[in-house]
Amino acid sequence: MLMTRSIISMLCNNSYLKPNIWNSLGTVVPQLQAVMVPQQLVTCGIADLAGALALCDWSQLQQRRRNLARRHCSPREASSYFSKMSDIGGLEINHFLDLLNRTSSGNSCDIKPLILQASANMFCQYMCSVRFDYTDKDFQKIVEYFDEIFWEINQGYSFDFLPWLIPFYNNHIQKIVHWSTIIRKFIIDRIVNNREININLEEPDKDFTDALLKSLKEDQNVPRNTILFMLEDFIGGHSAVGNLVMLALAYIAKNPLIGQQIKQEVDTVSKNGVKSISLYDMNVMPYTMASISEVLRYSSSPIVPHVAMKDTVISGYGVTKGTIVFINNFILNTNEQNWTYPDQFEPERFLERKYTNQINVPVKWNDDRKSLQGSDSVVHFDEEKHSKCSKIMLRKKGIINGYQLKKTIPHFIPFSVGKRTCIGQNLVRGFGFLLLANIIQNYNVSSTDFSKIILEKSSVALPTKCFELLLRPRHKFD
């Protein structure tokens, strides 16, 4: 989950090779050209690199900041933070669905702004104890700017790697600076100022904002900008949620059978609409969670960079200490050695049978595919059978009772690994689940023009103006 203030250009210096690295046999190891080294990271006037939680150098300050953020922004089930997250998400879903009912009216419409605003309110309430009205023009503007920036940081422009091109992109960079400035002003004026004046160091933390402001007063070594960077970074996480949900709805519109599976799961858990889906239902809705994982795999997203802590060798090439290293997440998510039929959108690949050690099960498809022995996908539902089966038959097949999410898939790391793993991943998954499940509970999702739903496989970000979807209110038991 890359945020606003993490828009830092990774500039290169490819004019020389680093000193030789010797292997254990005393032989010089071939080296990759040093295209990324820490001292070449610059901010292009957008932000202070040391303030960006995802991209700053590792230090004791960075460790303290991550510990503080993890306590508030990585809610675990059975914790008070998780309960708070569930309550906030449930209340915001009610506001969101009420407005969506009045907006969609059974017509094709652009629902991305509403989804983003709902996500933003969930994050703002959870982290800042403040909620904004959907008609608030300033709120609408900063949600749009966050989304614009989220799109930009997922593009991988040439000047990110070729610094001499920066002068040719000056207008583009200034546009991002403008967006960031408006966001910063909104957060200071509408969130921070009043809270900073009334902060009480003796009272328990009310939220993440309280914790940040208290750390500012208690530790003189913490710059105020650092606190603002962190707050912007985490509030900006709502853009990842909004784009994730939009992608999931697009894949459902293009693959109705997947939507049908989620509906069956939603209807079973909600007792056919008697109750709304809550955050505590995630564990009993494996197919829905598998669909979210498949969106993250199929679309992929860039992972924040790491830095080599010592000289090492990767695949025969020397990597010197201090070199910036990116994990090629796209290859991890699309490599046929890791995934069976990686070009197909199949949530089932993230499921496994409950109460059995048999993980890889040969299954014949109705399109004459070969056996899937050794596949990452455990259960593949037969399209012909599913188009005819009833809710009762589906439940007997065990979408809820017979299958569960795979606990670990080593090559699936959508939120990175190690010390720079995404702290807010539980918020992204949780709020994303709430929005997706409740939309599917209340609407049939389709499109009047599938040619306009253009989905890139290398980005979890969508353009601000992407595509319209057709949402028809569901009748019970449809």
Automatic annotation (TrEMBL):
PROSITE patterns: CYTOCHROME_P450 (PS00086). It comes from the Eukaryota. Pfam families: p450. This is Cytochrome P450 307a1-like. InterPro entries: Cyt_P450 (IPR001128), Cyt_P450_CS (IPR017972), Cyt_P450_E_grp-I (IPR002401), Cyt_P450_sf (IPR036396). The keyword Glycoprotein does not apply. It is found in: Membrane. Belongs to the cytochrome P450 family. Keywords: Heme, Iron, Membrane, Metal-binding, Monooxygenase, Oxidoreductase. GO terms for cellular component: membrane. Its cofactor is heme. Heme binds at residue 422. GO terms for molecular function: heme binding; iron ion binding; monooxygenase activity; oxidoreductase activity, acting on paired donors, with incorporation or reduction of molecular oxygen.
